[in-house]
Design goal:
Shape: globular
Strand order of the largest sheet: 1-2-3-4-5-6-7-8-9-10-11-12-13-14-15-16
Radius of gyration: 32 Å
Strand content: over 45%
Number of strands: 16
Length: 422
Amino acid sequence: MRRRLLRLTVRLALALAALPAAPSRLEAQARPADAALAPLASDVGLARARGLARAGRTDAAIAAFEAWLLDHPGDAAAWRELARQQRSAGRLRSALASLEKAEAIQPDPHAARDAGALRSRIAPALEPDSRASRDSDGNGVLRVGLSATALVGDALRLGAGAARTRVGAWGLSASADEAVLSAGWRPRAALALDGSVGGVRTAASDGATVTPVATLRARWRSPGSGPAAELRATRAPVTATPELLATPVLLDEARGSFDFALAGPVRLRSMGRIGALTGAGDTNRRAGAGGALVLRAGPTLELSGAYQRFGYDHDPGTGYFAPRRIESMEIGAYGEYYGAWPLAIAADVGGGAARITSQAGATGAWRRALRLWSQLSWDLGRARELRLELDGYDTLAGEIVGASTGGWRYGSAALGVRWPLR
């Protein structure tokens, strides 16, 4: 009897184990809640992408939008937001593709204009430009050039250009012809690289000289109020006077700056430079450094107070003014204004004082120093743009001064056009 009961018990246990498990009361209550929370949990990905975009974290926002759209390919609004972030990052072809996907899902009356503007920015473009300048030493410079650029891939732009420069003063003149290949690459939203390589043919009375030239510029801007850095390197002939261009005297120089948030909108900026002027059997090194406190008074306005100094190893005797030290202190402001569309205005002004220490060691008095740079851009539509640039100085010494006159004034105007071939 006991054996029969044991066998029945085992059979019953095996039969119960084969049945599908019934949900517990807690599980039964959780399943409707999970179904209700599923859309909310899904929306977290889109909210995160939008939050990253508002915080200026463009690369992270692009990745978040792309992840969201993998599961929600029919979200036209998200495709348009992704296009805006890709355009901000310089990924113009990707931005156009995203905008076209949004249009295929849900047409927008304003999207055709945006897509047309993107196509014009992607198209190859011609950029003629000219610059004329004059200083208080009587040197006049006229430069006329033409360049062509084309976008290759998503973030690489290649170009080629040619220019002619003529310098004249007191019956003397010299000229130079330049040809360069250029490239601009933006691998990430926070990093931009630009550079060029080529040659300059300098004409003088005793023949012509061909000199290799190059430029490099790297800019890094971390999102929000994070640190930023910029590096520039240049190899080019000096065009300040006919004598310097005819020799020719070459400038090889590297400059850098780094700034970071100090407290709230106040930032600390450090600057440095090192280089050399070489020509006529002489190499004259120069170096400098400086610092500035910068107040970001708005998204397009900066106020600053700066101190800078740089100087030369020795006086070359002739050709240009090369004191042991040039010091300057100034209050400056940089701003951009877009409220008068199609006109955009940018300006950088500064005022303060400068003094010079000669190679013999005598330090002069502080004297006023003023500078002004401004650019006016007129939007002609379809990525066409007309630019006017003005530059001026009134100080003891500038970048390259032909003679020590006790004061130096300089003014220049440049006119340029960007014209897409579309």
